[in-house]
Amino acid sequence: MVKCNLSALMGARKLKISDVVRDTGINRSTVTRLYHETTTRIDFETLEALCKYLECAPGELLTLSD
């Protein structure tokens, strides 16, 4: 199962969903689904935008768990 660590990364930086939406231009519902780990897919453009914004690698944002 793929786990999204967006909430942990945002928490470490004290960011709100509204901050990420405003600064990246990603749709609010997309960020919310990623934050709550209810999404079933992610576009490469979204992944790239989040990684650039959070200054992290894709492997830090998305991890594989058992």
From TrEMBL:
InterPro entries attached to this UniProt entry: Cro/C1-type_HTH (IPR001387), Lambda_DNA-bd_dom_sf (IPR010982)
UniProt-listed SMART domains: HTH_XRE
Signal peptide: none
One annotated GO molecular function: DNA binding
Residue span(s) of domain HTH cro/C1-type: 6-61
Pfam families linked: HTH_26
Superkingdom of origin organism: Bacteria
Descriptive protein name: XRE family transcriptional regulator
